[in-house]
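Protein modeling request. Please complete all fields; requests missing the sequence field cannot be processed.
Requester role: graduate student
Desired output: 3D structure, token encoding
Chains: 1
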Amino acid sequence: MSQFYWPIRVYYEDTDSGGVVYYANYLKFMERARTERLRAMGFDQEELLNDQGILFAVHSVQVDFKRPARFNDALEVTAEVSEHKRASVTFFQEVRRPGDANALCSGHVRIACIDARTFKPAPIPHFIRSELTNVC
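Delivered output (136 residues):
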């Protein structure tokens, strides 16, 4: 699969009093892109819950903020699988303006596969792991 981009528009509610995107909202943008990346790979999270009894939950985040985005900016968010293990997947993500190679922020987000009943780590199902192998 080619590099994945998810478009985002910065709304007034995404900004702070200075008119720049509030730092925590970059995490929301990244969440949307990861969800859509999984969907593009054929994995709808609601179906995984209902059919497999699993959830993906954020385990850890490391983000570097480099330049601000502002109200009404058009942005794109990447979501690339950089590593996968038995019960986790790490995504490398960037938020940037379309056509600009310089990221506004970038980071690694590790999500854990958990059992929906117990909230304990669960192995990623084989059919997902095989697809992750193809994109990593």
